[in-house]
Amino acid sequence: MSHNSFGHLFRVTTWGESHGPALGCVVDGCPPRIPLTETDIQPWLDRRRPGQSKFTTQRQEPDAVRILSGVFEGLTTGTPIALHIDNVDQRSKDYGDIAEKFRPGHADLTYDLKYGIRDYRGGGRSSARETAARVAAGAVARKILGDVKIRGALVQLGPHRIDRDRWDWKAVAENPLFCPDPSAVEAWEAYLADIRKRGSSCGAVIEIVADGVPPGLGAPIYAKLDADLAGALMGINAVKGVEIGEGFAAAALTGEDNADEMHMRDGVVAFGTNHAGGILGGISTGQPVVARFAVKPTSSILTPRASVDRQGHEVEVSTKGRHDPCVGIRAVPVGEAMVACVLADHLLRHRAQNPDAPTQARIPRN
Ligand SMILES: Cc1cc2nc3c(=O)[nH]c(=O)nc-3n(C[C@H](O)[C@H](O)[C@H](O)COP(=O)(O)O)c2cc1C
Fold first, then answer.
1. What is the model's pLDDT at position 90?
2. Does the global pTM surpass 0.85?
3. If you average pLDDT over residues 280-285, what whole number do you get?
4. 55, 120, 244, 315 - which has most CB atoms within 10 Å?
5. Rounded to the nearest whole angstrom, what is the distance from the C-alpha of residue 1 to the centroid of ligand 1?
């Protein structure tokens, strides 16, 4: 009943707290004989790592991953893969102040209400330090997915949206904001610098696109691919909304506009558009799988906010410690990792039930 695991055949259990000695995960169910070393995992962790730009927390964590089990001579063995990441830059004294106070927007109150005890240092288990373990697990999932390409980008920062006509995947790797619209970056950086100066914070919207997903992943009725993606993305800290494909905007379209028309091209089903986000009836169509999630503004801000303490007094809380002005930026690699884990799990489940499944959207003939 403790719910620190997700997935069925590709099952991830994470462990650890923000200010404990280390954190990590156990990945169970990875098929055997897949080449895997630390160098397959580290680059993904480096993209999430704090302290890399002035727009993310200055906590300096190398996030160096160690494979403790499940790999022999560079190949997975089919046994549980334990991944370990040391915490090296904890400053627990920054958090002494909140041992008794509940920070607005954080899990302090609810952990106390539920468990009657909490590791308040850096938010303990509720801290997004835990998402490093998810990114490590996502790297293993990507190895199972082979040619499936999972990429994420920040499409909205605070109130500022990208111009989708300028979308350039190359640009995402070339700026610290994971922004796919190069013309937006300068204005976004100025906006963030101002937000930080004012002791405030802002939210963001992240889009994840998975190209090369074979048709057939996902299972009706209670294991729909879109439902599992939504659950996985909603499970990331600070996420307050998830959309698949057209998402909430579909409500304003007509049936004609929202229809993804189908044609035959070289014996394969070809879609004219992808309003569905690559999923119909909970099952992947073979089109790109598109998911979007909204991240709330960072709760820890310098500006004082009203709250209460464990003794029931009204108090004010303002943040010391080190925090991201927009946690949505570092949520990009985390979103990619969660999508990778869900897709890898569904790929294994699909193959288990349907070993001869086609890899393209070919219409089965009797
Ligand atoms: C990558 C990442 C980093 C985060 N860093 C911070 C942070 O520095 N300060 C903060 O207030 N919240 C941060 N958060 C969000 C909190 O962990 C989260 O809001 C809090 O645990 C309460 O959970 P909830 O917002 O999901 O309800 C971060 C979230 C993510 C995804």
1. 75
2. yes
3. 98
4. 120
5. 24
